[in-house]
Specification:
The chain is mainly α. 81% of the residues lie in helices and 0% in strands. It contains 2 helices and no strands. The longest helix is centred in the middle third of the chain and has 36 residues, at 8-43.
Length: 54
């Protein structure tokens, strides 16, 4: 049986990836929103051009 203990140095490094994970989630969410917006624009492009002269 092995006992795993965390030292203070590893305990502080385990909290640092959370910030980068939040940042990566934000970037992925932004890219997803961008793709959804682009696909919605492409889907309704003809209607937008006719109604709003874009």
């Amino acid at each position: 049986m092995t006992i795993q203990t965390l030292s203070y140095s590893t305990a502080t490094t385990t909290t640092t990836p959370k910030a980068s994970l939040i940042k990566r989630n934000g970037q992925v969410s932004y890219r997803l929103l961008e793709r959804m917006t682009e696909s919605a624009y492409r889907q309704h492009e003809a209607r937008l051009r006719n109604n709003f002269y874009i």
